[in-house]
Design a protein that fits this description.
binds magnesium ion, alpha+beta, single chain, binds 4-amino-1,4-dioxobutan-2-aminium adenosine-5'-monophosphate
């Protein structure tokens, strides 16, 4: 029978003939193979009978090689593992030149591993991160499925640029060297593939709203694209976003949903990814030891996740937050790059981080932002100057979620669009929702990679997505 390492380490199958395929992590003393197949963080030790194995085969057992092992699972004689495989036969499936193989059994920098992203999941850190990423994705679908949401696929190529969430990537099939021109000398997109200008989507929200207003509770979970030149550890040009949208739900319900949802998916990984989390926790501790005391986190990785799961998020209005920021030390001592002077200021990540990391020391939901710093579709409050927006801020990450109650009143929405020069023709279908059976509805978007960063303790968003797309980088 063929098994995975994970099965061999957790199931009671000793003393039966077994088979296993995997990659050699290390081979020492011409006898002990540490074999990994990706099914778990752990390797299984395979003991080769070197006297009865031909020399050429022994030479080909090198770090990185793929092998097919037959043998018997026995209690281990050595320390460090309960069981091991007594190898009866070994076949080399794929050789790996030990001098050239980039993933040596030693510590590599994350920068080096990013350049070798096609092989970096052969390391403990990246295999743990990517197993957690997979597990979180599953937990997300599970949560929505159990709560009667429908999973909906929104288009990736979009003809509307109305969302205003960020700069877009153009999608075109025109010959860039010789595009058709109109009478004014501008590129004539009527002759392009779709007969109009199209872009990669920045969000599936507007389309998700259309389905919420018929199916009730829906969510999207797909790739989104932003052509901003943001070279930070928290921005990608291509990232995955989860966007639930719910009919008849107001902003308070939206906050409840976001909080319950995040707690649920984080509990799932606490329960199901213990080994990987413990490994990443140790990694983070080692990393933090290299930092000055003041920058070290007070909690370990697992403690941080448990803290989020077990405590209520603090809900604070934008107006209250501005008061706190205006009077805080770093503002008064001009330590912030952007000094908060008055109500209406947009919050920068330094302010968000001060609120969550220094002031409240827990996840914070900021709500009721000034209308003019938020998107056109957000529900205007009765005060006429704030909108029912919410951002969820996380320690170490900053903004994790952005969402709102949506403007459901046709006249107010039209006025808002007019003020912002958003043509009604472009969003006729979006306005139709307000014409035919409009209702209060809300939703939010959660940046999946930021959630993975939080759950893994990784400090750079490039290290939580298989092939990061960032300015000047689209390798692989
Ligand atoms: O706040 P944002 O721009 O909100 C929207 O796009 C809304 N349409 C969502 C909705 O209401 N349905 O983006 C939502 C989240 C952010 O809070 C952040 O976590 C993440 O998406 N995000 C990014 N993640 C990685 N790289 C980027 N460049 C990101 N931009 C936003
Ligand atoms: Mg936002």
């Amino acid at each position: 029978m063929s098994y995975t390492v994970s099965q061999l380490l957790t199931q009671d199958i000793a003393f039966q003939p077994i088979e296993i395929k995997g990659w050699v992590r290390t081979f020492r003393a011409n006898r002990f193979i540490a074999l990994n197949d990706g099914s778990t963080l752990h390797n299984i030790q395979c003991v080769v009978d070197f006297e009865n194995t031909d020399e050429n085969t022994l030479k080909r057992i090198t770090t990185g090689a793929a092998v097919h092992i037959k043998g018997e699972l026995v209690e281990s004689q050595g320390k460090g593992q309960k069981v091991e495989i007594q190898v009866t036969s070994i076949a080399i499936l794929g050789d790996s030149d030990p001098d050239e193989y980039p993933i040596q059994p030693k510590k590599h920098t994350f920068e080096f591993l990013r350049e070798n992203a096609h092989l970096r999941t052969r390391t403990n850190t990246f295999s743990a991160v990517m197993r957690l990423r997979s597990s979180l994705s599953f937990a997300i679908h599970k949560y929505f499925n159990e709560n009667e949401f429908y999973y909906m696929h929104t288009p990736i190529v979009t003809g509307s640029d109305a969302e205003g969430a960020g700069e877009m990537f153009r999608v075109s099939a025109l010959d860039p060297k010789n595009p058709p021109l109109d009478d004014d000398g501008n590129i004539n997109y009527k002759e392009d593939f779709f007969g109009k200008e199209t872009n990669l989507t920045v969000s599936g929200q507007l389309e998700a709203e259309t389905y919420a207003m018929s199916l009730g509770k829906v969510y999207t979970f797909g790739p989104t694209f932003r052509a901003e030149n943001s070279n930070t550890s928290r921005h990608l040009a291509e990232f995955w976003m989860i966007e639930p949208e719910v009919a008849f739900m107001d902003l308070a319900g939206n906050m409840d949903l976001a909080e319950d949802f995040m707690k649920s998916v984080l509990s799932y990984v606490l329960e199901h990814n213990q080994d990987d989390l413990e490994f990443l926790e140790k990694r983070l501790l080692d990393e933090e030891k290299t930092k000055p005391q003041a920058e070290r986190s007070e909690m370990s990785l697992i403690e941080k996740i448990k803290f989020v799961v077990d405590n209520n998020f603090k809900r604070v209005s934008y107006t209250e937050a501005i008061e706190i920021l205006r009077n805080c030390k770093p503002n008064k001592k001009k330590k912030f790059n952007y000094i908060i002077e008055e109500w209406g200021a947009d919050l920068q990540s330094e302010h968000e981080r001060f609120l969550v990391e220094k002031h409240f020391k827990c996840p914070v939901i900021l709500f009721d932002y000034p209308a003019n710093i938020k998107a056109f579709y957000m529900r205007l409050n009765e005060d006429g100057k704030t909108v029912r927006a919410m951002d969820i801020l996380f320690p170490g990450i900053g903004e994790m979620v952005g969402g709102s109650q949506r403007e459901e009143r046709l006249d107010v929405l039209k006025e808002k669009m007019k003020a912002l020069d958003i043509p009604e023709e472009e969003l006729w279908w979006y306005l139709d929702l307000r014409k035919y059976g409009t209702a209060v509805h809300s939703g939010f978007g959660l940046g999946f990679e930021r959630l993975v960063m939080f759950a893994t303790g990784m400090g750079n968003i490039r290290d939580v997505i298989p092939y990061p797309r960032t300015p000047q980088n689209a390798e692989f």
